[in-house]
Design a protein that fits this description.
mainly alpha; 4 helices
Length: about 90
C-alpha cells in the first residue's frame, strides 16, 4: 500500500470527519472508498485507448447552416455580426 498526503478545504474535511464518525471508519478508508467509486464510474471502455477524449459535439439547432457557415458566424466580432445583421434587414 502506498502512503500519500492530500489537502482538503476545511469545510470538506469537517464533512468527511462527520461521515467517518457516523460510519465508524477512518478518513483513509473513506478516501479509499471514494477513490474506488470514482475510478469505477470513470473506468475506461474495454478495448479503448484508455486516453481521455472530449465528448463529441452535438448539433444544437443551427439548422440550415453548413459547418463552414457556422464557423464563419462564430468567428465574427460583435461589431461585424451587428453590421451583418443590419445589412440583412
Amino acid at each position: 500500500m502506498t502512503r500519500t498526503q492530500i489537502q482538503l478545504p476545511d469545510d470538506v474535511y469537517e464533512r468527511a470527519r462527520k461521515v467517518c464518525k457516523s460510519r465508524e471508519i477512518s478518513l483513509a478508508e473513506l478516501a479509499r472508498r471514494g477513490l474506488e467509486y470514482v475510478l469505477s464510474v470513470y473506468a475506461t471502455q474495454p478495448g479503448g485507448s484508455g486516453a481521455w477524449q472530449p465528448p463529441k459535439p452535438r448539433r444544437l439547432g443551427w439548422k440550415g447552416l453548413s459547418e463552414a457557415e457556422i464557423k464563419e458566424q462564430a468567428q465574427l466580432t460583435a461589431t461585424e455580426a451587428a453590421f451583418a445583421h443590419r445589412r440583412r434587414k
